[in-house]
Amino acid sequence: MIMELTSEENAALNGEHGDTLQTAYRILVATGEATNAEKLIPIKWAHLSGVNYNTIGDAGEQFLRELSKDARVKVKATVNPMGIDFDHISEFNHIDDEFIKKQASIRDSYIRMGVEPTFSCTPYDIFDLPEKNTQVSFAESNAAIFANSLGGLKTNKESAFSALASAITGKSPYSDLRKDDITTPMTIRMKMDNPNELDFGMLGFFAGKVGDTSVNISGVSQPNRRSCKALCGGMGTSGTCAKFQFIDSEDEKSEKVDFGKEEMNEVFDELNTAEKGDIITLGSPQLGLEELSDLSKMLKGKSFEKRCLIFCSRAVQEQARTLDYINEIERAGGEILSDCCTCLTPLIDTNETDAVTTNSIKGAYYLNNSTGVNVNLKPLTKIIEDETK
User: Fold this and answer.
1) What CATH number did the domain enclosing 157 receive?
2) Shared-domain flag, residues 164 and 228
3) Are residues 265 and 281 in the same domain?
4) Second label for 291, Cα 20 to 30 Å away, from 18, 27, 77, 201?
């Protein structure tokens, strides 16, 4: 489909407003034509990926360094986690100096462009969401799914390039989940009693594999925030599906797929590759204030028996310190890290760690497949029971 552009958009595409805007509009037009978009529409918020040096490498670092000389964001823009927490580098002796230098360059490039330095995969834990049906452009998969499914916003599962182009132009292609007339042809029937956050993460991973762009989920009431985030994280990891909704009654016309013990065990067997972990990681997606509150209560009078890395955004960490949640967690031996995440961080590598214990399906997938570290999967209550004294 050939997109209809305004005269101003055409002028920018033709280079009349400079190379930076021309590049951004080229990205948006290519994305729009690939997704059968009829036009570009305004957005109010862009959440960017492509921040971790481990994922974008030298080419990405150089691209951002050059782009940031001229580019400035036009709308509210937030950004995904980096690979490290610069405040805690000295506690991880194996981090390469070159990585630190290049990661700092990437950080500085985004800040020069006017991006808010949130370095979080959970912007919905930091900011109040805009009014329902607001168009946004989120590149982080769990954030896009959360925005569509629980926040009432509209975004496709954007790429690093398309979200950055949207931040610079304030526009995004009008296609797929941005429209009001999307169909949801599949219903996943939850067949588990009293599911915990790990079960919801596995449900999400399963849904991401079998669903298209959107699925219905029946057989479960609205879960707590930790389970909702686990569902979003699992779904964003395994496929293209970027929206779910909980339903009470099933559409007779929709395809029905069951998620019961057999399906759950298949996901578990795929991702659980170790009987125990050398360290514990919590926070993929990063933990929010409510989750840190729950964790601090669970750790009363207890101490971790092995190293435990806990990931949250810096904004949430500051709030949690004020409320005294962090003191209790650190007293128990938990190490609070901000600006980074379990996924794709050099803080965890095979030279230092053979296996990680976590309750995160998203974390398990990336630890197994990108870092090469084995994973011992447990729900949070079981981790506290087994790994503390």
Assistant:
1) 3.30.499
2) no
3) no
4) 77
What count of other Cβ atoms lies within 10 Å of the Cβ of residue 331?
14
Contact 337, 347 (CB under 8 A): yes
* Whether residues 250 and 379 fall in one domain: no
Residue 32 confidence (pLDDT) above 80: yes
Cα→Cα distances 1→40, 81, 204, 315, Å: 13, 35, 32, 42
Rounded Cα–Cα distance for residues 332 and 343 (Å) = 24
Are 190 and 335 contained in the same domain?
no
* Rounded Cα gap, residues 60 and 196, in angstroms: 38
- Residue 221: pLDDT band (50, 70, 90) is confident
Structure-token pair, residue 351:
């030279």
Q: Which domain covers residue 238, as residue numbers?
A: 186-269
> Torsion angle of alpha carbons 163, 169, 175, 178, nearest 10°?
80
Q: What is the per-residue pLDDT across 81-95, written as a single tens digit (0 to 9) for each?
A: 999 999 999 889 889
β partners of residue 154: 135
Domain count along the chain: 3
202 occurs within a structural domain: yes
| 122 and 229 Cβ atoms separated by less than 8 Å | yes
Q: What is the pLDDT at residue 185? A: 83
Residue 127 within a domain: yes
- Answer yes or no: are the C-beta atoms of 368 and 343 closer than 8 Å: no
E strands present in 75-201: 76-79, 137-138, 171-173, 186-190
Query: Is the pLDDT score of 31 beyond 80?
Result: yes
How large is the greatest C-alpha to C-alpha distance in the chain, in angstroms?
Answer: 67
Separation of alpha carbons 68 and 82, rounded Å: 17
Q: Please report the pLDDT score of residue 209 as a whole number.
A: 95
Last residue of a domain, one of 231, 252, 269: 269
| Nearest Cα residue to 162 out of 25, 4, 13, 5 | 25
- Kindly report the number of other CB atoms within 10 A of residue 70's CB atom: 13
In 10 A of CB 269, how many CB atoms?
A: 9
